[in-house]
């Protein structure tokens, strides 16, 4: 089994019980082959405890992760690469249509596809399973 890949972000939201500012830690990770978003918090005003596990990463917090940690880029170090294989993996993993997969494959092959480290590593692992050498790197 491959190692988990995680990134975390700290943010504040109002407590659902008392309205005080609640400090939260969110962790975006590739765990056991699946992407997940886990959040833990404890309200210092009323003691309300929250643990939300296995959710989808909210867009605004994805943006924060990218701002805090920087984007990871997908690299395919050994040309030539079977474009058809890359497109097949992209369609299956990202739920893309043929036209979208062709455009994203162009970005992947040009070294311009990026996202959070767990997102890019998940795609790199699927590409490796399909026989394409791929790595997630952060500049």
The main sheet comes to: 4 strands, antiparallel
Strand content: 25-35%
| Spatial arrangement of strands, main beta sheet | 1-2-3-4
Poorly predicted runs of 5 or more residues: none
Number of helices: 4
Number of distinct beta strands: 7
Q: Shape from CA axes? A: elongated
Structural class of the secondary elements? alpha+beta
Succession of helices and strands: EEEEHEHHEHE
Distance from N terminus to C terminus (CA atoms, Å) equals: 26 Å
Mean pLDDT across all amino acids: 93
Gyration radius (Cα, Å) is 18 Å
Helix content: 25-40%
In short:
Helix 2 crosses helix 3 (98-109). By secondary structure, the protein is α+β, with helices and mostly antiparallel strands.
Topology of helices and strands:
Elements: E1 5-14, E2 21-31, E3 34-42, E4 49-55, H1 59-69, E5 72-75, H2 83-94, H3 98-109, E6 114-115, H4 117-129, E7 135-137
Antiparallel strand pairs: 1-2, 2-3, 3-4, 5-6, 5-7
Helix pairs in contact: 2-3
């Amino acid at each position: 089994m491959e190692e988990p890949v995680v990134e975390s972000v700290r943010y504040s939201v109002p407590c659902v019980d008392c309205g005080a500012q609640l400090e939260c830690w969110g962790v975006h990770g590739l765990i056991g082959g699946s992407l997940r978003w886990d959040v833990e918090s404890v309200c210092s005003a009323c003691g309300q405890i929250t643990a939300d596990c296995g959710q989808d990463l909210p867009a605004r917090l994805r943006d924060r992760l990218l701002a805090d940690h920087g984007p990871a880029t997908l690299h395919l170090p050994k040309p030539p690469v079977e474009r058809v294989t890359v497109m097949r993996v992209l369609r299956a993993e990202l739920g893309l249509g043929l036209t979208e997969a062709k455009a994203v494959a162009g970005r992947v092959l040009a070294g311009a596809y990026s996202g959070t480290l767990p997102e890019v590593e998940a795609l790199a692992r699927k590409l490796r399973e399909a026989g394409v050498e791929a790595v997630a790197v952060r500049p």
